[in-house]
Design brief:
By secondary structure, this protein is mostly helical. It is globular and about 70 Å long.
Length: 510
């Protein structure tokens, strides 16, 4: 990690973009790269700089990991907490605990883009730690089931904001050449958070230590501390500085720090200037324009569809109720199978990082959804036959294998790609508002699955997963018809292609 600008002390320009959380529009006396011709210019900039790596890690550990941990937390602790003396909760209350996260997440997701556009991506992440810490405290020290539920909802709000601002920030600070790999890092850290939640709740840990569950739900304090300490050293999003604050000087300084090269920063600033000049006086897209413009409307349709595909596939039913699903298929060690499921999710998301920029987003989305359809058929068949003939021992390994192949398919496609594409199909003038709607749709679908799964399972069992198979088939067709390829294309080119696509009737990619 040595070499270039990254090993030099912070100068005044670094302080402006690396330490100031909310730069004032009246900044003065700041030595910026473009303002000082005598300033050293690094001509051999690198794709990966210390500043870029630090900024990505702060965003995904402080935001994405938190969301993953909260998502996986109830899967392994639900049965223990239901029987805890201070809770003694019914199945209905436990279902509310599961639903509490998406309830808060819906409000946070809808607010994320607006907050990030108003105060900046950095300050949005900083302030988001307040509800996260409050929710964590209420869960860790909750005196009864209702206080615990309130904590889940408040933490859910923070997770909703996190899922909106983190992909936006890391996309805006990343070079086009690695945008795909960087975009997957958000989903990778979500899956790692889920695995940590599964691992810390595995086996008899909760039953062996009467006070362990307090520490379990206090665990999010560690990634929050990491973000709070290191966020000050990360630059603000250059896109937000240029388009929202109209500070070309600070945007140039942020890019210089991220790229390790003033020349590369100048090139990207030139692209921003040309884009803004082409748009004329209108700097930010209004809500009305987002729905009235045919190309923006199509981009929003694609973004909303992909986010719905991710959640309505039933992934959170698998994650929240994995032990029950395995038991219903006759598998004895359901906790072990659940942890293995989380581990496979992490490994396959990691493997998908290089594939994202080699095979492309559209190809992986189609492969992922196709694999999920085949896997769900296997899960449904295993449950159906086990219900009819419990002595059929082969249904147990079939259930585990097909659930794992479902996780593999989800990880390489619908797990990562919706977050990535939403950040790629909108320019900075519309990204905040569009992101809020897309993330809000994600949380609405998340909440829908969490609320309805138990009722559907009770009504349709053992045929529940045939329903989810049909949903995945629908979104496979949707992706095939409407989702364009965005691999290694600048945002401006992607938007031009979507504009051309919007002129067709119907607006398919063919």
């Amino acid at each position: 990690m040595a070499g270039g600008d990254d090993t030099t002390p912070l100068l005044e320009d670094d302080a402006a973009v690396g330490h100031e959380i909310f730069p004032s529009s009246t900044d003065s006396g700041i030595s910026l790269p473009s303002a000082n011709p005598a300033a050293p210019r690094v001509r051999n900039g690198r794709t990966w700089t210390c500043s870029l790596i630090l900024s990505i890690s702060v965003a995904i550990i402080g935001c994405s990991f938190q969301f993953g941990f909260q998502t996986g937390a109830m899967g392994m602790t639900q049965s223990f907490l239901k029987n805890a003396t201070r809770f003694n909760a019914t199945d209905e209350v436990a279902a509310l605990w599961v639903s509490g996260l998406p309830i808060g997440g819906l409000v946070g997701g809808l607010s994320a883009g607006i907050i990030a556009d108003t105060v900046g991506r950095k300050k949005c992440m900083l302030l988001n730690n307040i509800p996260l810490l409050i929710g964590t405290a209420l869960m860790a020290f909750g005196v009864n089931s209702w206080v615990f539920l309130v904590g889940r909802i408040i933490a859910g709000f923070a997770c909703g904001v996190a899922t909106g601002v983190a992909p936006m920030y890391i996309s805006e600070i990343s070079p086009v050449s690695v945008k795909g790999a960087v975009g997957v890092s958000h989903q990778f850290m979500i899956t790692f958070g889920i695995l940590v939640a599964f691992g810390l709740g595995y086996g008899n840990l909760l039953n062996s230590f009467s006070s362990y569950w307090h520490l379990y739900f206090a665990f999010p304090l560690l990634p929050a501390a990491y973000q709070l300490v290191l966020l000050m050293f990360c630059p603000e999003s250059p896109n937000w500085l240029y388009y929202n604050r109209e500070r070309e000087d600070l945007a140039r300084a942020a890019l210089t720090k991220l790229r390790g090269s003033a020349e590369k920063a100048d090139e990207e600033i030139d692209v921003m200037i040309k884009e803004r000049t082409a748009k004329g006086d209108s700097v930010m897209v209004t809500w009305g324009e987002l729905f009235s413009s045919p190309n923006l409307r199509l981009a929003l349709f694609i973004g909303l569809g992909l986010q719905c595909a991710q959640q309505l596939s039933g992934i959170n039913a698998i994650l929240n109720y994995a032990p029950e699903i395995f038991k219903s298929a006759g598998f004895d060690n359901a906790d072990l199978a659940t942890v293995i499921t989380g581990a496979i999710n992490v490994v396959m998301t990691f493997i998908s990082v290089p594939l994202m920029d080699k095979l492309g987003r559209r190809t992986l989305m189609l492969l992922g959804l196709g694999g999920m359809v085949a896997s769900y058929v296997g899960v449904a068949v295993a449950q159906h036959i086990h219900a009819a003939s419990p002595d059929q021992e082969w249904t147990s390994p079939l259930s585990v294998v097909t659930t794992l192949t479902f996780i593999v398919s989800f990880a390489i496609g619908p797990g990562s790609i919706p977050w990535l594409i939403v950040a790629e199909i909108f320019t900075s003038d519309s990204r905040g508002k569009a992101s809020s709607l897309c993330v809000g749709a994600n949380w609405i679908c998340n909440l829908t699955v969490c609320i309805t799964y138990k009722y559907l399972d009770n009504a349709l069992k053992p045929n529940t997963f045939f329903l989810y198979t049909g949903i995945c088939v629908f979104f496979l067709i949707f992706t095939m018809l409407f989702v364009p390829e965005t691999r290694k294309k600048p945002v401006e080119q992607i938007c031009r292609e979507i504009k051309e696509q919007s002129l067709k009737c119907p607006p398919t990619v063919f």
